[in-house]
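pls design
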């Protein structure tokens, strides 16, 4: 059973991702004991032209700075170019 801090961290990470033009519908996000896990596939929302890897690096940096986050484990698949 996740604790309240982990639930809030998960929500905070999801909010951070949805601020961007990223399709994260196939991305699993959860936190456990201060470790944030991001697993799955990302895409770019229709009508946007962004560098998805660069955008995710910014997001990962922001997540690492959040209070209570000890580590971020990102196992992310990007679309083939």
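designed seq:
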């Amino acid at each position: 059973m996740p604790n309240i801090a982990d639930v809030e961290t998960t929500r905070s990470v999801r909010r951070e991702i949805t601020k961007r033009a990223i399709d994260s519908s196939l991305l699993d996000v959860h936190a456990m004991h201060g470790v944030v896990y991001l697993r799955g596939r990302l895409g770019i929302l229709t009508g946007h032209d962004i560098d998805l890897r660069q955008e995710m690096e910014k997001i990962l940096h922001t997540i690492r700075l959040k209070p209570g986050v000890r580590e971020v484990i990102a196992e992310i698949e990007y679309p083939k170019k």
